[in-house]
Design a protein that fits this description.
391 residues, mainly beta, 2 domains, eight-stranded antiparallel β-barrel, eight-stranded antiparallel beta barrel, 3 helices, 3% helix
Amino acid sequence: MNRHQVMKSSITCLYFGRQNGYFSGGDNVLSNRSVMYYPPESKAVVFETHHVYATDVEDVFKVEGNLIFKTSYYYEQSFNRGGSFISSSSDSRDRGILDFDFHGFWSRTTGKLCMVGSSYTYSDEGKLLQLEAVLKINNLKSSSNISTLVTGTIASLKSANDPNYFEKISLLMFPQVNYGYTISQGCPLGTDVQPKLSLSLSRTRTICDMLSGGENAFELEYASGCDSSKSCSPFGDNIGYLPPVMSLSTIQCSADGLSLRFLIEFRNNSYRGYYICPNIITSLIGEGTWDAKSNRLCIAACRIYDASSSLETSRVRDCTTRLSLRFPAVLSIRRTGTVVGEIWSLKKRNEAGFFDRIEFRNTGHYSGKIQLQGLKYEDGQGEEILSKEES
């Protein structure tokens, strides 16, 4: 890699900033010794670019940055308008953080990044381990869409019998640079609901404002007669159960606040706390846009395949799942959901992958801001008992 002569000027237009994602593997150096509960299916990783320089080879650039591994259960996920980031206020020794300094070269044409670097940690016996590694990242390009996943590996440069050796780690990140919303807007085949039955958004509050700032958890209500049959879940019989809970985790928000990107996870329990590491195998990647005419958020979602063996092999396809989300204008003792919606398939009933329509409503763990102007409460007889103004 040293054959490329580096020019002095920094190429700021190619600055990747911060890329968030997940990793698997490397348990011998990345196990979280401060938390002795069962390990997560996947764990958080952050790739931060510090400098990008031109070289004397066209479309090849030198890159300097850090790869930060986070394995603790107790992270707080924060959000800003340009994307999301992960932070923690606890001591780094309790957070299970491993921070690699990397430098290498990136090809703008192929999207491949190859870097070498080092870090250190301590073994279970307290011995200092000096880690040397090569980082390879694929599909890191200057623009992206819903089908774009950034994948890669980090491998030890030591031999397997060396005490500083660690097993290969696979990576999966969701690109946040120049994202393009490519799936057509609207809720095709969604249930029509009169716009007056749903709350509209004020001029000062966007859908991004409503759904950012934490995890949004929803209880799933399947069609009558559904059990574990293949036509009841977006995942069919592949996971062996019907998930009772779905969560929407914001990946990124558009500049105008009207569109969002989500990681949509289907879980087998309602409690998650600060455990922000999802099971990619039971997750969808989606993008949604607020429809002001129908007062609802329309979301197109895609399956993530081949993540069970290694995150490096993950790929996106089958974007036939749709979701809609709205804020009911009237609540009652029987209808308590301040956020409701449905999930459906664009496939025909006799097609592989079809599933029956699923309804959902927010749970007590919902942390979004749903106090909108015009929200009404009625008793069981339809009499209005309270009207709540926007706070």
